[in-house]
């Protein structure tokens, strides 16, 4: 009896195996199709199948890209990205979103949450060190860095560089200040003494923001002084490099005091708030207002020289640049797209188009040579001035208030009768305070 049962079981197993072999045969022919999982995978629970589907495009990473730019260039940027994507079908699987986030806000947002931030974002050059420290920027490839260094002006390249590495793509060289003037009044804009004499003779005003920590250093930097800050990897201020308490600094103070004494002097830097002006130190953002104010006598020039310690010193100051950064990526293909797109958006061709669209001043040398850019008097004057400016780095918030206090004291006449020893004492106190901000 036992032998009979064993025989019957063997027959049943043969039929079962034959049946299984027939049901598995179609799966063997379909298995090579990646999009169609084998029957064993289909039998798996739904929650186990999902990860396999999400992991399929692993070589392409997340198929989306987020770009942050200033509100006034959102539409322009979308148009340029469409041109790029059409020329690069290899990235057709990616969707690119452009969001209006201003340069200052973009930097703050990236520092707050890098992971949630944009893949490409515009930012002002004074935030470079903090963004690098926060791992919000990836250095350019050797190939792209060589292109950036070759095709852009020295100031913008320096602004995008930390140590020996370039971390961003320059977009503009248009943030700085220079001289707007009425050429029917100002006979020679090359010296401050001549400008003030012409204004006084005509009963006109010369506007300069002596209280501002941005404009005020033009005299000290022109005299050869320095005022910069070092930061550590966390963005904390570690050292203040300053030599205002020096013979050079005393000379700059005397020049500032002489300016404030002039009956033509008015403190300010906004064309929109100026009245009876024959000259004003301002930026490109007020070019249209300056054209309206001066009419057919509208003219521009770099900042003038000023006599310091018996010699003509070229007023200097800060230069500012807009940069485009790329966030570190975990996927090589997406990183390649980010770098290629950033290089394109910062190219000479696109910078010229951006100037024509919204008047941003190019950093690209070929774009700067474009006839339309060359014909822009404000940009031409700024370009000349930036050759004497230093890129604005990071400064403690308290510095700006301290500079205002120094300016207020000068304007009020507090130091009009001060001798060199007294001015050195004032500058030493200012210097010590600035140094204290880095401790």
The description of the largest β-sheet is: 5 strands, mixed
Mean pLDDT: 87
CATH architecture of the largest domain: 3-Layer(aba) Sandwich
Reading off the top of the CATH hierarchy, the class of the largest domain is best stated as Alpha Beta
β-strand amount: 15-25%
What is the CA–CA distance across the termini?
A: 98 Å
Number of strands: 18
* Global morphology: globular
Offer a few descriptive terms:
single chain; 439 residues; alpha/beta; D-Maltodextrin-Binding Protein, domain 2; 2 domains; 5-stranded mixed beta sheet; 18 strands; 46% helix; globular; disordered N terminus
Task: Tell me what the structure shows.
The protein is of the alpha/beta class. It has two domains: 180 residues, Periplasmic binding protein-like II (D-Maltodextrin-Binding Protein, domain 2); 180 residues, D-Maltodextrin-Binding Protein, domain 2, CATH 3.40.190. It is globular. The N and C termini lie far apart (98 Å). The N terminus is likely disordered.
Short note summarizing the structure:
The protein is an alpha/beta fold and 439 residues long.
Write the layout of secondary structure elements.
Elements: H1 2-30, H2 39-42, H3 46-55, E1 64-69, H4 74-87, E2 95-100, H5 103-112, E3 120-124, H6 128-133, H7 142-151, H8 154-159, E4 161-162, E5 165-166, E6 169-170, E7 178-182, H9 192-202, E8 205-208, H10 217-222, E9 227-231, E10 237-242, H11 247-261, E11 265-267, E12 277-282, H12 287-294, E13 298-301, E14 305-308, E15 311-314, E16 318-319, E17 322-326, H13 332-345, H14 348-358, H15 365-368, H16 371-374, H17 377-386, E18 390-391, H18 397-411, H19 420-436
């Amino acid at each position: 009896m036992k032998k009979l049962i064993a025989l019957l079981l063997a027959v049943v197993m043969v039929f079962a195996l034959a049946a299984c072999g027939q049901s598995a045969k179609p799966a063997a022919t379909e298995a090579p199709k990646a999009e169609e999982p084998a029957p064993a995978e289909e039998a798996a629970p739904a929650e186990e199948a999902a990860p396999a589907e999400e992991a399929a495009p692993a070589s392409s990473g997340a198929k989306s890209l987020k770009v942050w730019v200033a509100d006034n260039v959102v539409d322009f940027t979308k148009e340029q990205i469409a041109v790029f994507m059409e020329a690069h079908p290899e990235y057709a699987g990616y969707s690119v979103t452009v969001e209006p986030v201003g340069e200052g806000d973009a930097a703050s947002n990236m520092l707050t949450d890098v992971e949630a931030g944009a893949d490409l974002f515009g930012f002002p050059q004074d935030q470079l060190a903090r963004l690098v420290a926060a791992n919000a920027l990836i250095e350019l490839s050797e190939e792209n860095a060589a292109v950036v260094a070759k095709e852009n002006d020295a100031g913008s390249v320096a602004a995008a560089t930390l140590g020996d590495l370039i971390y961003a793509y320059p977009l503009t060289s248009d943030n700085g200040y220079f001289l707007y003037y009425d050429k029917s009044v100002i006979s020679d804009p090359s010296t401050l003494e001549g400008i003030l004499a012409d204004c006084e003779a005509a009963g006109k005003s010369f506007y300069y923001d002596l209280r501002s920590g941005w404009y005020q250093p033009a005299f000290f930097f022109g005299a050869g002084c320095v005022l910069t800050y070092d930061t550590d990897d966390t963005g904390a201020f570690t050292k203040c490099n300053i030599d205002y308490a020096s013979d050079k600094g005393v000379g700059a103070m005397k020049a500032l005091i002489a300016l404030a004494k002039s009956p033509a002097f008015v403190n300010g830097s906004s064309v929109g708030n100026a009245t009876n002006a024959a000259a004003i130190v301002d930026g490109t953002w007020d070019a249209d207002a300056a054209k309206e104010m001066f009419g057919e006598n509208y003219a521009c020039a770099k900042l003038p020289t000023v006599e310091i310690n018996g010699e003509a010193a070229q007023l200097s100051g800060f230069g500012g640049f807009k940069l485009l950064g790329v966030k570190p990526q975990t996927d090589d293909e997406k990183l390649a797209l980010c770098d290629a797109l950033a290089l394109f958006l910062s190219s000479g061709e696109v910078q010229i188009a951006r100037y024509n669209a919204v008047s941003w001043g190019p950093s690209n040398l070929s774009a700067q040579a474009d006839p339309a850019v060359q014909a822009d008097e404000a940009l031409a004057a700024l370009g000349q001035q930036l050759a004497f400016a230093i890129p604005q780095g990071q400064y403690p918030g308290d510095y700006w208030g301290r500079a205002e206090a120094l300016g207020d004291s000068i304007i009020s006449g507090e130091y009009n009768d001060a001798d060199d020893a007294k001015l050195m004492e004032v500058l030493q106190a200012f210097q010590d305070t600035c140094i204290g901000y880095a401790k």
